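Bumping with the actual sequence this time:
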Amino acid sequence: MEEKNLGKILIVDDNEDLLFAAKMLLKKHAREVFIEKDPRRIPFLINNNNYDVVLLDMNFTEDTTSGKEGFHWLRKIKEIDPKAVVILITAFGDVEMAVQALKEGATDFILKPWQNEKLIATLSAAIKLKESYNQVDKLSSRQKQLQADMKKPFSEIIGHSASMKNVFSIIEKVAKTDANILILGENGTGKELIARAIHEQSERHDEIFVGVDMGAITESLFESELFGHKKGAYTDAKEDRAGRFEVADNGTLFLDEIGNLSMPLQSKLLTVLQKREVTRIGSNKSLPIDIRLICATNMPIHDMILESTFRQDLLYRINTVEIFLPPLRDRQDDIPILAEHFLKVYASKYRKQFKGLKHSAHQLLQRYSWPGNIRELQHAIERAIIMAEGEELDSRDFFFLSAKPTNDKINTNSLNLDEVEKNMIQKAIDKNSGNISKAAKELGLTRASLYRRLEKYGL
């Protein structure tokens, strides 16, 4: 079977015999061939379809020799689609007209009656040009996305705890498939890192990974951001723009905080996922998409279905496999290695020399409940490094955590003097919002004495 590599072709000519002859010839080589004898339908056809090449007659019944009609419709096509590939055909061609046609934006120029081999060769060259246009558009959009991604810190997933080993096991099983993934977990647990890990281990790893924070997109910009828009589609649409679905074509699309979408936006998203095609705002053309979908949320999405705030059919569409990321408080074994990792990162960033964290610092970090999870730990290490003066971080460098809830409950019934002193120090620090000077004054201690006790008790 002969390969049909000429794509989708539109032929516009007022000669019906020529149209049918061309269609019979080209349907052996092209994926689809459309013919039209009335040039007035050109705007409708170009607005509602994607053609790889347009074969356009230069002379219609109203003017059979000058080529003015052909140039008029060429300009109209380029106005609608500046990247349209148009080949002009005429029986009255000359060099001067050919030069003008190229200046007007035509890709090539052929005379009729044409030689079949010459026509097919011309179309093949035009198809390659169209593919290069498409590739440039895709690369341009991807370049912008990659530049944004390069600004995101850290790409490693660090964890030796049993719960994380289970997560790694699931990733290994699902990554090579194209199954849709739903990642559940609190804010700051690293859901995007997991999504990127799945992409890197998938068959699409050489293609782009596109992340979208659904919680940061307003309802008015939802369609433009995800599906794209045409120039002039609305007031601020200064140029054609590909949406995130288009940019992610052949790669992975990560929709973070999907639980924040309103019901109307959920409906629009579901339609695109079902049809596997998008339509830019201001256009009637549907563009096929091929993506691997990964979603994430910190919301109780299964409860939301019972409350009718999340569509069950959309949940079925996005969660072929679910991955639950445990909070940091349930992965205490991972806190020391995460802390050491961030220590190296920020020590390098701020050009400081650190040997590591002291035992008292590790004790404090493991006792703290980390409501902000890994993101909070990351910020805590960064803040401590900026403010620290020694070569090792100790508990005093994390005084700002002492004012917050920890995993330990203060025991007010203990008669052990050390335990009572520890509890009183903790209360004083909590009461004074982590201000060491005020806490020391209230306890009747010097700052140095209080610091010694903080280190002693790992506070």
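The tokens above came from a reply further down the thread. The first helix runs from residue 16 to 26.
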